[in-house]
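--- STAGE predict ---
source: upstream dedup step, 1 unique chain passed
mode: sequence only
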Amino acid sequence: MQLLKKPILAFFTLLSIGVISNAVADVTNIDNATLAKLIEEGVPVIDVRRVDEWTNTGTIDGSHLITFFDKNGRYDANAWLAQLDKLVSIDEPFVLICAVGVRSRNIAQLLDARLGYTAVYNVKQGINHWIKARQEVVPYNP
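--- STAGE serialize ---
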């Protein structure tokens, strides 16, 4: 199977022209309070940011660190999905988080609309808002 490596622009272009459906029934955008509740319930949190971002801000304790877009906006969806599939099945709930909620929202829409994941949560304001609200993070430890 050929790996997908395309610039971030192509991903967002597909979103904007409707190749990736805008009807996203099962993606739930959540706030910090809901994120805290889901963490307490043991719902996996997938941090899609890059290593440099994890290093700068820290991460939510126990979150799974799986970079989606590299620094140049390229991605390998097949490799990322292989890592995700080790953590959750298509019908299990999980949370996606990025810096401000944009990347994670777009990934969540792709997972739901095109790949059939049924219980995807997106942290709508990302980890930056989590940190601003003085919620706990831990230093990135590779």
